[in-house]
Amino acid sequence: MIKKEMIAMLLAGGQGSRLGxxxxxxxxxxxxxxxxxxxxxxxxxxxINSGVDTVGVLTQYMPLRLNTHIGIGIPWDLDKNVGxxxxxxxxxxxxxxxxxxxxxxxxxxxxxxxxxxNPDYVLIxxxxxxxxxxxxxxxxxxxxxxxxxxxxxxxxxMEEAKRFGIMITDENKKIxxxxxxxxxxxxxxxxxxxxxxxxxxxxxxxxxxxxxPGLDFGKHVIPYCRDKGEALYAYxxxxxxxxxxxxxxxxxxxxxxxxxxxxxxxxxxxWKIYTKSVSLPPQYFGENSHVERSIIGEGSEIxxxxxNSVIGCDVIVGEGTVVRDSILMNNTxxxxxxxxxxxxxAEDVTIGSNVHLGVGDEAPNxxxxxxxxxxxxxxxxxxxxxxxxxxxxxxxxxxxxEPSDFPGGTLQSGRTLVKGGM
Length: 422
Hints:
Distance between the termini: 49 Å
Oligomer: single chain
């Protein structure tokens, strides 16, 4: 029988609705990040850098892009005869067929997959965080303490603690209590949604709670383990960790990559981030181009000026165009003489010549003010913008826009423009 000390289960089924139009056609973990990467590359790279060579990726919402990206796991050296990476969508059973209804329900539905590796430990991960963590060090901590469950925690400012699941521990980091988004937190150790379970403890908790609606780790499994008197420990992590679940945090995390001394360094030799790579020519910089503090992906051609921006692969920035504080994903094409300020383009976006995005004063977005904010202009996948138009701030455009969509050549701040067929 196959025997693996620790396998990983990576939850990658999330819709990511707070990323707005960026996730209208793909799961959040498949969204581009840092120019050439996708969000899921970070936990997958952590696995291979930590010596975890068996990873089940649980997909559900719009999985095509994610499945294509992961393939058989070659970029992460996870194309193994035994173990490797397996994409695990919900599947039809003889009875009780259902979608994944909660984080722990998704794991429960893949009990047979986990059983087949006869693991000592199971590592539960989320597919939508940007960080580098050595899971082997966390496993050593789990073993040293004889823990049944170890929860990765991160110290957060006390005033922010009420936004998280908070762990209360003794001096040995044993968890004595926990509170979900407490009004008056008693600790600042926030759960990162990363767990190591000893396999018998996980199996028992999942089977005992299998009929709980929306079976969830934070709400059901962890409280069950505590009430059973099992040993719960908090593993403190002090590195960079970013939940890129909102457009604002996604934009900020990309911008942090280009700081003079970035908190999160993509260039470290000893902890590489792996991704699926396409053979592309090198970047090309035209005679009048100018680039400062930016990441420019392979195959991109820059004829204009780019400042403080993250540019994906196969992007074209036209002559005389100025791009500032923006994220342009793969295959974005911008004409000549345009300007972009705090713009996020999804993939395959076309922007005409003499187009000015992110101009004027801010106004709250008319459809989703909590998503499209902080002055951002967000363009959905495949969107096209005609020549000679001005677009305000906190704007979302999705689809093939026409000149008639811009009265007087302008789309005011706070507007949402969605064209048919999207």
